[in-house]
Amino acid sequence: MGGLPEGMKGSDMTDRNLVVGLAHCRVSDSADALATAAAARIVMLARESLAHSGRFVLALAGGNTPRQCYAQLRHANLDWLQVHVYFGDERCLPWGHPDRNDVMARAAWLDHVPIPAAHIHSIPAEQGPRQAAQAYAEVIRSALPLDLAVLGVGEDGHTASLFPGDPALASSALVVPVFHAPKPPEERVTLSLGTLNGARHKLFLASGVGKRAILERLGEHPELPAAQVREAQWFVDRAAWPG
Ligand code: 6PG
To answer: Is the CB of 182 under 6 A from ligand 1?
Structure first.
């Protein structure tokens, strides 16, 4: 499969490149095939960025969906010394808490590849939303624009920690505090919509029948946060695909 290095699992996917209301969508047969397809795309984008600029700067999604994709990226044959990892959002939990997004990404992927520790930029969400957002804006500022933002979507249409109707959605800051997230914990830190939209590539992952309804709604509800991420490529599995 395109650019998939040795060691990464093959896939039985029969993907269909479909354009849905707001995005270019690739449908895979299963969650595993989705993880393989998304990992292959991330490797391709990494190689393009490394060849073009000598580095690859990406922000990672949290939640559960990306876990399988991240695990497959352990096997990617990349110049890891030139990869710089940021996070799209983080939950305001103590450092090392099992529910943190950086803990998930490190366990699934980052701890298994030789990315320099200094190139993995966790959000200091343990400091609380406001202080962490201010601190992370100074950390990420010099790295922008991102080459890639990896994103998930919630059943309510949120992405990163940008939730429908939350004032964070309208912020012009680089990084925004969130105080009343409907998905626990309620205190979070998130890259702003502007920062996410400034990324050269945006890649959404959505898996499972629980995401079918929101994928159906996004096309008719441009006000939803995930719908406001422009020119994104979506990787979904058949269970989530409304078509
Ligand atoms: C978080 C994530 C969040 C996530 C979606 C989808 O902190 O929870 O950043 O935006 O990507 O809620 O989560 P699942 O992949 O677990 O469905």
So the answer is: no
